[in-house]
Structures are given as structure tokens and as C-alpha cells.
Amino acid sequence: MLESGAPELYRLAFAKGNPLRLVTVKISAAKAQRRKESRKELQKRGLPLRLCAFAGEILCTACAVVVIMCFAAAIARANGSNTVTINVAPSGEVRIEAHSSSTPNSWSFRNSYAGILGIAERIDDFRAATSSDQDAKARKIATGEFRSEFEAGKISYRVNVSKPAAGDVSHVSWIAGDYGLLMLADLLPQDFKNVSVQFDLPAGWSVASGNSGDTNFDPEKAIFFVGRSFRQAGKSVEGMKVTTVLGGTWPFKDRDVLSAATKVMKNYVELTGFKLSANSFIMIAPLPVKVGSIKWRAETRGSTVVLLIDPAASFDHWVGQLSVIFTHELLHLWVPNALQLEGDYDWFFEGFTLYTALQTALKLKIVNFKEYLDTLARVYDSYLSYADDLSLIDASERRWTTPGSLVYDKGMLVAFLYDLRIRKESGGNATLADRYRELFSGHVAAKANGNEAIIALLDSAPAMNGFAKIYVENSAKLELEQVLPAYGLTLNSSARQSELRVNPKLNAEQKQLLRSLGLRK
Question: Rounded to two decimals, what is the model's pTM?
């Protein structure tokens, strides 16, 4: 996923231009209702940090809509899952009632995600009841922490999601105007693992999700789009199902979104040699708040990509902008979401993903070679703007607790250097893309340490042995001005903005290398 201000890749587009299973629907009478912790320290407190995101329109003019996801409550309980009813008010108040298959006496809600603190402060009016429906006398003992005197199988509480902020709008639940995103990871207690969900929505609203039809889905990955007038389209790509759902009015055609997404996904099947098993879901909705110069926010969680865009953004080429965003966010469906690696290897699944996305944009002719070089030069300027005193592994562990974008910028530039070096040493016969195919070939063990597995993979080519130790494990500062001339590139970083250009006097080897990279001359 992309954080605000980090991805220089996406600025270039500003200048440049199984089908979803139907949910069961029941109509009921409307109710008058309403940084300084390290990543490891946060994980000790049970706060996951990386998750490392739409059914057809249902209209009802006089009634609230209740959408049943999964099995009926009685069947779900028999299967040992937790059943949840989510009542949504247009004002942004969400009332949740949950029945647990167990009878705990304490509940903990996520209070931190992706550097956002205080998420659980939105929860109030928490109540608990025993199996005989008696008050279990619950009380709040800390932010997001509740305890009852007696064991309770039923809880209810209110969550205020009416005030999204620019920094968290793509990462946590919100409702604003006619739309909202509900993410179970910040709405439910953290010990709720297998969940069956029922929605009670305002009149005229519907719900859409890539999770619809699942009997027991994971709250860590579940995202629901609620609101009015969704438009849905689907397509099969290399045997994989892709569904897009759009809300709002846009200066592009809905079919262009699906076309751009499927083109990128087809490329990533070729890149990785791996077909996703889960249906991929792309949600696009208007940004509910004003943000800075980057007029969109994105999150990829599980098999769902959420893209929030300012409808008033003055993009010169809207479809090109969408395509560039997709090159990054859709790769996250594979890396890290389709991998089963552990640990903090953000330098790879963010930094290397940025470079691979840029290479993909070049290959698909979304950008040209000059824009490719200009993007890398801007990333280098960003990298030079702050001190580089951390290895990429250390920077990944401290990603949410330190300022700057080292994981993105340095990670992307190291991927660039790796790609150059392996192409040069192999005479253009090997590329960084080969490592992705090996990563998905089945040779990397599930639950392996991500850093160890990927470093071993990067260093597996004889000519690349020791590369990762220098650039990933150590805190060596990048000096591209000295390195790039060997590859036929010149970098002038003395001016206000760095300029990365092709040397007009290339030798035969350099010309072959740059042509393999995407140079067209």
C-alpha cells in the first residue's frame, strides 16, 4: 500500500498524461437508529501492523436493508464462528452486536495501524451480557480495553466512524455522505477470528465486498463498501476473477477501469508465474476528506484493493493515472498478500514493488523511458533529503515510528541497481523479474522469515552474491552518481532537481543493457 508522500512513481501520471457471489438479501422494517513504539513492541501488544483494498445495487425506498453474509447465525454458531450484526446510520454511527462462540470476560480492540494511533478511542457504550442475557457488568479499563465481572457471550457497542482524516482514510473504517468503508479489523475485538456478518443499512443503501459468500472469513482482511448506487463489472484474467465496483461520478468510463486493471494483472501473472486463488476485488470511491497534493489514497488488504480519489483532481490523463496506481497496488495482491512469509520485509514488498511497478508501466507503455528516468531521479532527490543511517531491514522495522520514506525510496533505488547489475552481468539474459518467478515457484517455505528468504533469493545468482549484504543488511549510503556511468547512464544531482539521462556515447554492451531495460533507440 502507498503512504502519503512516499511514492514518487505516482507523480509522473499526474504530469502525463468466480463472478462475485450474490449475497442473500432480506428486507425488514426500518429501525429508528441510530511514534514511538517499535513495530515489535506493537506486535507484543497484539497490534498487527500490516494487512499488507460489491454486490449489485439494492434499492429500497421504505425499508432498511439487511444483508446476510455467510450462513445464518445458528449455523455459524454450530461451526464455532462468531456472528456479528452491524447497524449503520448515515450520520456515521455504527452499532455492533456480536455473539461469540466462547464466553470471555475481556475484549481488546486495535488501537494502532499503519502509524495511526488512537483508533479504539472511537468505541463507546460497551455492554456485555451473559448466556442468560443478564448484564455482565462490563467496564472500560483502558483505551480499547474492556472487562466484565462475568463471562459473556454477547457484546454490543457503538463506533463513531463519522470523522475520517486525510492520513487514515484508506486504512480505517469511515462513513461520510452517501458512502463508507467498513474494515472489520478495527471494528471487532481482536480475538474474533471466524466471523459471520449481518448488515442493517439505511434505506436505499447496499453493501459490497469481496468476502461475500464466504462461510468464515478473516476480519483482518475483510473490507465492506456501503452506500448508494454501486456499479459493478467483472472479468476473467488468465483464469482469475477480477471485479470492479465504483461509487460516485467520474470523468472516465467504468469499463476503462476494468480494462486497465486486467492489463496490469495479466502482466503480473506473467511476471510471477503464479495465478491468484482468491477473486480480486477493486473498490473505487470518492475521497471523503480534503487531502494534500496527492489527490488519492489506496490500501490493498487480502484480495481487495481500495482506491479513494478526489473527484475534483485535475489529472491530465485519468485512465493513465489509474493505470499507474494499479501497477503498484495490484502487485500487492501477490507481494506480500499471496506469500506466507513472516517478519518485517517492507523494503521488498514496498520498495522493490515501486520499482517493479515502474518497470511494468514502462513495459505497458503507460510511461516512456524519459519518464522512467525522471521518476528515478525524483526518488533519488527524495532519498538525499534525509539522513540514511539505517539498513533497509532496520528501516522496515521502524517504518511506522520514524519520519521519512527510506523504505520506499532506498528500497526502490536498490531494486533499480539490482536490475541493472544482473542485466549487465548476464548480458541481458537475467533480470529482477526472474527473482519474482523463483519466489512463487514453491521453493520458499511457508512461514519462512521474509528477510532471510528474499535475501537468499536475491543473492542466489553467482554474479549477485553479496549484493543484498551491502545494500539491504548494511547501512551503506547510495551514491548513484558514481555507480550509474558503468551502465551508460549519467546523473547530475548538483542542480535543484537531479537529472538522470542516457549517455550519448554508449558502447555496445551498454546499448544492449538499456534496450533490455526499455530504451527504444
Answer: 0.84
